[in-house]
Queue: 2 jobs
Job 1
Amino acid sequence: MEGFDWKVNRDGNITYFHRGILAWITRTPSLELLDTTFCVGGYYADLYDFMRLPNGHKVLLAYEGVPYAMDTVVPGGNPNATIVEALVIQELDASGELIFQWRAIEHMSPGDVPHQDLTAAEVPLNHGNSIDIDADGHFVISSRVLDEITKIHRTTGQILWRWGGPSGDFAFAGGHPFTHQHSVRCLGNNRYLVFDNGNFSSEFTGLPPYSRAVEYELDTENMVAQEVWSYTHPENLYGLAMGSVQRLPNGNTLIHWGTLTSTPDWGAIVTEVTPEGTVAFEMRFIDSEHLYRCEKHHWLTNNEIVGCMDSSACNFDVLASLPPGPDDPQELVCTYPDVGYDCDGSCLEDADGDTVCDPFDNCPGVPNAGQTDSDADGLGDACDPEDNTSTPSVPPAARPSPVSYVVTPDGRRINPSDLGSTHRGLMLLVHADGTVEKRWFP
């Protein structure tokens, strides 16, 4: 139940779907649990895709069922039908608040669905199975049962274009249309990579159905989808469901061929091919072992971050997974507050509110920001009974004696100004009156 669609997501963390609680689990690269993400507003997250963005936003997919009078759509339609597999997109901000929602039922018609019995009691609408973000920031989704890829405005929800299927805006050039596709990925410059399951490819080729990876370039002025690259497995593999495709940084393409029906002795097959179509890598699973999606990412190796790993430091980095090297000791990578101050430079203790922290205030009971000490005895004029310029307002017993020096646990004598910067931990503070105080400096 736990672990579906395991992958390194866009923010560098590990995500996977939990089918028991219908939510996405996120773990750090070192597998520490980070959070659990649910849909909101009464929807339940679906397992087909999930994006965690570097800005903390999360994009989820869900399905909903909607009562629908199909007799108003097609002759013989069921007046009490239910539209199923109607996609819902939700984008949550870093705090988990819903900032965008899109419902397919508000933008798509069940009358556009091909290859389905529209007179049935349940009619699938679009079965969205992947989502990506285009170069201009808008969403691109794959709708399997519509044989359609759709671009959606990320703010208004308006459909910007429809590609493929009965309502497509583009003509196909240089190849046949995709059918029941998965895993559309935006490559930039109006180029898109698609895993074409090819369930109905026979309608265009006259051949038995087969799957392929296809790259298209869209001409959004003339509305033409030009096939610019494709790869079909030498064994004419046909995956009737699932499957994925990914363009790798080196230009190769990773293809997972879906749920195969043409290779009875094998389960899932994953192939990496060069732009020229040469197989660079292939992995075959045993019979009955299937995958939904397969992607190739750097996990720990390229996501290891040298940074401050000390949670008490001001610049602690929760993503840091490597300590600094020998030439960069931790004290040079981490920054700490000065003794008596927090990371924002505010006093931890300032009884008289004069912005001078109590450990360094020569008269902590009386406001004296100037810290004037005319006789240089370590006690400020504001509360020094021997200074005729002021009247003591704090009883002598309540006045802490200033710190003369500090002794480390190993017996070294250091200056008080070094506390919290180069020296931390348990320290002995030796006051001017001879008293000794134990204090911990994080």
Note: Residues 390-399 have pLDDT under 50 and may be disordered.
Job 2
Amino acid sequence: MLYEEKLKLYDDEVKNSVDELFTVADKYQSHYSDLLLIIIHCFFNEDAVNWNNPNIPKLSPFVFGSGNEGLMLKSQNEFFHAYFNMYIIKEDEPQELKIFKEGNGPILNKSAIIQMELMFYLKSWEADLFLKILYNLSRLTHGKNYDWHKKLKDTGRTNLITENIRNMTKVTAPTFYNLIDSIYSPQIRNAIAHSKYWIASDGIKFFNYDPSDKLNTLIGITFIEWEVIFHKTILLYNHIFVFLQFYHNRYQELAKDKHFGHQIRINRKDGSIVYDWLRYNEPEGWMWYSNYSKYYLKRFHIIIK
């Protein structure tokens, strides 16, 4: 269950951590539009490479937009939004309603609510696009180029989150590192994914406990410990998208006075680099400048008398 007072309690801590991540990524990005590539989800589309319809010409495999990963994340976000709006407990709500929401009413008991929360935790750390966003932001803090070709299937989730996100920011964004270190547990994620847990009267017990494995040393956690992890995870998830929108607005504003828009860098798999231009056009949004010049400029004619 989400408690409004706990969200307020941890909000500054999480917000400042995410702010640090974006600020450092923005400062040290090796090309000024790499952060924009994260925001609009640029990726290498393998389907375009394998296209073999002779009646339709091949398009560039370097694209931006939702893609499958974006559509999956959209559905997840809609689910999160609907659930949390229904079950958030506000400070000024009548006690009777709080009791009902907390699971003592006829719909959900405490165990069921905790299991729903565990599911949200798992879904947060499994969402491909969310993890790709964190992965590329972490790269930018080191001045590494945006990775157009990253496929999450190539890297296990545990290694991706602990090595390519958490540990990648240990020096460059230590506040963000500390946040991830305190709320992400591969043992908890795996226990949820494989149903190796038990909701006891005093907390959550894990059956993937293994004292010989440094990743699985938790016997269990109390409900109070879980509440902290859960609320901070939800705040992290939310603030990532808030900051994405903030920087998106900045790139839009900067593009308004630029005929060509923003130059972007495309890193190919063979190590070569090409550059292109993205223009922001109302109301269509971002588009390749080549498309703008082809389909929009031709509508206008200068008549000299």
Note: Residues 299-305 have pLDDT under 50 and may be disordered.
